[in-house]
């Protein structure tokens, strides 16, 4: 007499075969995967830097391109569409196929359903204190918050967004607070809305090149230098197909809309970017190093405290400006953090103009974040370890 009945033996073989197939699938390239690294390797990397990057990220590459991890989300999406079931992903699709990021509470923030008054107040107080410390040295600060796509691409938002109607947003609150502090700030939302659609990349969290240039020009006007603006036609190339955006790369889904952009075609006045001894702070991400761009022996010194919306492009757009050096520093030590840059670096760099351009979903100061070296002048701090 056998220990297992014949049906159970068949089931055992089936289960063993299933587990064996799953193990072998980790060695089989996914037919739907793109075979790309989730974050593109910069061309400026040397061969040893590229090898080090690939070694540290090989796990993510295997996760993206093996084990049917790209195929399964597609099957899941097709099944939900066939059943008429709503999806629940970290992004969502607008009326014309544009993708919107759904995390970091961006939808509620842009709609005004989420207003973290204490965190916005903390940001406003931080900028006001920076201005009080630096104004005697002749430094001017201009705040320009790159908006969430949900704050600009209103025509593309899904129909359920029409029901969200709140009077005040965190962006509005910040502008009012900065005005009360006497800090110059520019509202980039109407600036970008005035441009042609699409204003943001349709498969990415970032604005497109034209919106970047229009925003840069608005900042130059707000800074009192309208002659420092650049002609978009002079720095942008013709519209052409663009690489799929970060939203699409993260989800590993095939594109439903075609990504196009006007690539930057800047005839650089500045020298190649370099490290500056005054800017010692570096963001945790290898792509967000603090860099300086030399323009001329004399002229103003400009420091951009920003993120991926401005890094790479804005420091190179001072083609018509009387500047000697333009530096870029990430406003946070963490990619998803806020307000914890090193103010001692700012003072050491001694800028004449500071442009603060942290994106909307990250500009409120979370938790106990505060710049190193900047005095804390207020008594309404958000307690540490309290969710914003």
TrEMBL record:
One MF term in the entry's GO annotations: transferase activity
Cellular localisation: Periplasm
Name of the protein in its database record: AlgX/AlgJ SGNH hydrolase-like domain-containing protein
One Pfam family from the record: ALGX
Domain of life: Bacteria
Signal peptide bounds: none
UniProt xrefs under InterPro entries: ALGX/ALGJ_SGNH-like (IPR031811)
Main location: periplasm
One cellular-component annotation, GO: periplasmic space
Pathway(s) this gene product operates in, as recorded in its UniProt entry: Glycan biosynthesis; alginate biosynthesis
GO biological process: alginic acid biosynthetic process
UniProt key word Signal: yes
Keywords, in A-Z order: Alginate biosynthesis, Periplasm, Signal, Transferase
Domain AlgX/AlgJ SGNH hydrolase-like residue range list: 93-255
